[in-house]
Amino acid sequence: MSSPNFIPSASSEVRVSSLYSDQILQARSWFYTVQFVGKRIIDFCGAGLGVVLLSPLLLTIALLIRLDSKGPIFFRQYRMGRGEKTFVIWKFRTMEVNAEEKLKELEQLNESEGGVLFKMKEDPRITRVGKFLRRTSLDELPQLFNVLQGSMSLVGPRPLQLRDYYLAMNDYRENMLQRAAMLPGVTGLWQVSGRSEVTFKDMLQMDLLYQNNWCLWLDIRILWQTVLVVLSRKGAY
């Protein structure tokens, strides 16, 4: 199937000698276009409704972060987006303000297979409130604003840190470029398949599987599964 977040252009309606085949190609092109529009409507309406309904929770979390530790309420960082264009991602701050500097000291303790992503179950940089936010995935809620801005979708591949992206390019260049054709998402297949327990290689395979088999119904299923996974806290740390 067509990749999500991609609008088939007029060139996709390839003219072939068979009129029957031509009609099939045009029908598929319009079908994917309709699904794309549906995805963007779900993104905008879902994110907008989420911000409105969850505003009391967002304010409560902001207050808890302010009371728990010194530093800003939000964490902002450049991530790799669609077409290898960087964007600023928004999250609730779950770590100490000097977390990026301390990362260099902790690199040797990385528990991630392959070393692309940094994973550490007992990361000393995480604050008390941050531990709760991470286990419940509530730290991801500000990404709804990224969806409204158009830099992210509700469902898509995980937006990688620039460090992780360039490390992955060393071994998975072709797959990473294919992956970069999609808008990154707040949730995706890997989040509903083990989250922190999933290796980077498996995560990459899931992203490509999602891209190659995308349809609007798949997005809806992933959104529903995300709710169930978050409630169970499976694979989060």
UniProtKB/TrEMBL annotation:
Look up the domain of life of the source: Bacteria
Protein location: Membrane
User: Which regions span the lipid bilayer?
Assistant: 41-65
A GO cellular component term found in this entry reads: membrane
**InterPro entries hit by this protein:** Bact_transf, EPS_sugar_tfrase
* Molecular function terms, GO-annotated: phosphotransferase activity, for other substituted phosphate groups
Q: Which UniProt keywords apply?
A: Membrane, Transferase, Transmembrane, Transmembrane helix
Its placement in the membrane is given as: Multi-pass membrane protein
What family name appears in the similarity comment? Answer: Belongs to the bacterial sugar transferase family.
- Database matches in PANTHER family: COLANIC BIOSYNTHESIS UDP-GLUCOSE LIPID CARRIER TRANSFERASE, GLUCOSYLTRANSFERASE
Please identify the protein, giving its name as recorded: UDP-phosphate galactose phosphotransferase
Organism listed in the record: Chroogloeocystis siderophila 5.2 s.c.1
